[in-house]
Amino acid sequence: MKTNKNITSFDDHLDEQYGKIGTESREKFEEEFETFRIGVLIQEARKKQHLTQQELAEKVGTTKNYISRIENNASDIRLSTLMRIIREGLGGSLKLSLDI
């Protein structure tokens, strides 16, 4: 069987693009990725419930623009706001984990 020696693992790609785990550039990438992921999760949950950004914003007492910024990774979000969006807006609950 012939193998392609030019294939790189995703971890190796991240190391090359953003530095090794623990470096400042890699930590920044990881943080931004988690923020992006939260936005995608909110957007997917909102769409699954057939809610517009405006409807979700009204349920949690914020603006459509703020929901849009969260979903598009353009805004930091406070934990209390995130919990309110998930609990009051989407009827869900937030579970956190800590990796040390």
From TrEMBL:
<dbReference type="InterPro" id="IPR010982">
    <property type="entry name" value="Lambda_DNA-bd_dom_sf"/>
</dbReference>
<dbReference type="GO" id="GO:0003677">
    <property type="term" value="F:DNA binding"/>
</dbReference>
<feature type="domain" description="HTH cro/C1-type">
    <location>
        <begin position="42"/>
        <end position="85"/>
    </location>
</feature>
<dbReference type="InterPro" id="IPR001387">
    <property type="entry name" value="Cro/C1-type_HTH"/>
</dbReference>
<dbReference type="GO" id="GO:0003700">
    <property type="term" value="F:DNA-binding transcription factor activity"/>
</dbReference>
<dbReference type="Pfam" id="PF01381">
    <property type="entry name" value="HTH_3"/>
</dbReference>
<protein>
    <submittedName>
        <fullName>DNA-binding XRE family transcriptional regulator</fullName>
    </submittedName>
</protein>
<keyword id="KW-0238">DNA-binding</keyword>
<dbReference type="GO" id="GO:0005829">
    <property type="term" value="C:cytosol"/>
</dbReference>
<dbReference type="InterPro" id="IPR050807">
    <property type="entry name" value="TransReg_Diox_bact_type"/>
</dbReference>
